Amino acid sequence: MQYLLTGLTVGAIYALVALGFSIIFNASHVINFAQGEFVMIGGMAAMSLAASGLPYFVAIVLAVAAAALVGLLLEKFAVEPARGASVVTLIIITIGASIFLRGLAMLVWDKNLHAAKPFTGDTPIAFAGATILPQSLWVLGVTLAIVLALSWFFGRTLLGKAMLATSYNPLAAQLVGINVRMVLFASFGLSAALGAIAGILIAPITLTSYDVGVMLGLKGFAAAILGGLGSGVGAVIGGLALGIAETMSAGYISSAYKDAIAFVIILAVLFFLPSGLFGKRGGERV
Amino acid sequence: MPSRLAATRTGGLAAFAAVIALLPLALNNSYFYDIAVLVGLNAIVCVGLNLLIGYAGQISLGHAGFFGLGAYGSAILSSRYGWPPLAAMFTTTAAVAALAFLVGRPILRLRGHYLAMATLGLGVIIFMVISTEDKITGGPDGLSVAPFRIGNLVLQDERVWYWVVGALLLVAVWLAQNLIESPAGRALRALHSSEIGAEVVGIDAARHKVMVFVISAVFASIAGSLAAHYSGFITPGKAAFLHSIELVTMVVFGGMASTFGAVVGAAVLTTLPQLLTVFKDYEMIVFGAVMMGTMIFLPRGVVPSLALLLAPRRHDAGGGEPGV
Amino acid sequence: MKSTQARMSFARRLAAIVASLALYTGVAAAQEPIKIGSFLAITGPAAFLGDPENKTLELYIEKINAAGGVLGRKLKLIAYDSAGDAEKARTFTKRLIDQDKVDVLIGGSSTGETMAAIPLAEAAQMPFISLAGAVVIVEPVKKWVFKTPHTDRMACEKIFVDMQARKMSKIALITGPGGFDKSMRTECLNVAKKHRIEVVADETYGAGDTDMTAQLTKIKNTAGVQAVLNPGFGQGPAIVTKNYRQIGIKLPLYQSHGVASKEFIKLAGSAAEGVRLPAAALLVAESLPASDPQKSVVVNYKREYESRFKSDVSTFGGHAYDGLMMAVEAIKKVGGTDKAKVRNAIEATHGYMGTAGVVNMSPTDHMGLDLTAFRMLEVKGGNWTLVK
Predict the structure, then answer these.
(1) CATH topology of domain C32-150+294-372
(2) Contacts of residue C268 in chain A, CB cutoff 8 Å?
(3) Considering the entire predicted model, what is its pTM?
(4) Which of B192, C134, C240, C282 is the most exposed place for a label (fewest CB within 10 A)?
């Protein structure tokens, strides 16, 4: 049971990061390798703002806004100028951006690890023979809330529907008057905000530093692929599945190889379902 | 047409050989030779990887895994079991080729980002195995490697290594060029433009993809084996995700579908961190900015973009610039 | 008459010119700085090792220069960031030896980086003081290589001695992914029998892992475990400690000297209460009894570092301090930077009181510390305290 609870917590974090990947991919077919850095910025900014005396809630809002701003700037100055380029080129640009952001974070903050205060305290809650931290409940709860909010956003609001339309067919979307560039711009901001929220949620559990983005970005990417790129539901399920697979492997098989096992599972899934669990199984135009 | 292509090819190769022969005039001490050797080794991997990414249009985010396997295979066989280094290297290369063949078939059925993920996963798995089995591999603290020996001849001096690696790089480039111009190479380029279209005209896509995957893995493995003997010490970092990304960056940066582009990419990205040490704390920022800037302003990579700039009216750019 | 006088004054002038030229070149040669070469993990996963080491070297070289330098010459620090990567360390070491032509090497924050550099230092006959932990650096002894930190084997022995005193014999290990972690685990497994300790559970976690409850649950469910030892550094041990309390394990928890810092207490929070580890006296500098021979050295270093950098002192920075001081002492004793002579002088270091403890090197011992150099510390009331 402990494994399951831990797996869900870890999985929820991966899910949030994976959602960020999915949203940008939907709008632009680009994998933004700097997604992990948004998580880092969220956590670090919230921690340092709170440490400088602001009430925690204000710090959180400002941190998310800061991350969203970074996301928008990234799109404007790094992605947009290279819009005609090949996918691989764009990937390299986002990788360069992630290195840049990490270098910047090192200077703005420092190279140390930092603990952040949990939202509602530290005492573990007992549940069916296992324990879960109150912060983990926050992680799960907020992730659920965000998933619901996003489905409302994509299903009901105009901007959301425009983003969905762009992901299906950018040309057609342009033809019906959707400002595709605006959609791309907004998607970066949205993904960055999501990443930042993920970072803020987990900082109290996992500690934060200038390079937490690397591993989380990688796992988030893996989760997004597992769930099927472009599918929000897939991203969430992929994240949870990855988290649970990892902790189960650690618990029952071998803690040394738990990451390797998780990747083996992903490879196996991709072998049978080449587009991930929920990915678009579209045809390919010749 | 073929004769002009052949002329460009041999001309380019001859010019490259001249560069390799004359470069030592600029290398003052063994530190510079060291960097040159590292560039050469990276270039060998990149030339192979470029065949996969640039010409066949696939992607691999796990190629450092093959490099690492080459390095560790050679190191373990020669240093722990006392095999002659040449035998160790050949055995390791054969093993890596077999692995690439076995794994390649199922993995290459995937496309785009899914393929990227699968290769990434492969690389990570290799890295984890190397890191964890510390009884054989020495774990994260690394492994000392005996110097390269053929009979009684020990290869240790940087200068000697320079010539060895330079020669091997020439061979690698020549092999790559030959492959590209061969029927198999044309099949690959057709694959890149449209896999379905290529199959329609009778090209066995799967077979060709696996072939180029194996070839690029072999290049990486050989380079890894040599690197292990050259450095005298290896750590699992050689197989890590970060190294894979570095390799892909070198290929894309230098110019995909350009063999010399791969060499240029390797050269620039290997020497850049050495030059950037002056920036101390700002090194990461500058490096990231350089990466972004170059890809934004030279999106095809350095060599093809420069080629376009220098010869804007050449519409028949020989050597292949398949629609990326 | 006039010509003799003219000749004499000309000769005098010539002599004066020659003399001043000689003096000038002599002085110019003396002004050549003594180059201290260093490759450290200033960024990257081992930054908490390399960053304080770099700061310490900069701080003390500045102080020494301000006080007149060494033998009338200034010290010059040439430091490169190897970011914990052995390949980078190797290349930078080459650069320091061949391009920058340094006089002595002080560096190698991690074992991997050090091991990569050792063949180069040996081949170039360059005295090299390593700041890394593993015992393989000085065992077997290499002519030109020394080290200042305690070995991981010493840490294991100190911990096992403490466990024996508390009547424990069955323990569990939970180890991190790094070289330091794994090396210490190997050493602990090697010396466990000698101290009558049996390892009944052996778990590991990965880099960047954010939750170890699965592994700890396995340990919790293993019968007979009396204590848990976590060889590791960085964020892993802090998370292990928090998870430990979270799932309610009441057994004593031992950490390694890899987390011997105030940082660790800040990161682990209240979960750190009761955690024990072996560490240099530097951490409890002020609470050492006045009779403790190490007290003045560690108190001074702590004060200097903290007032300059406004952050907690680190035992790793202390290792760099010891390395620098021993190298400087050796150069002073030799009266120059002749590498072979400096090496001999370093090897003859005797009774040097550093932040790590008293150092007595010999041709068979290139580290020079003994078990008294480690103190057993425990976290009480949010602070490090000496265990009597």
Answers:
(1) Rossmann fold (3.40.50)
(2) 115
(3) 0.85
(4) B192
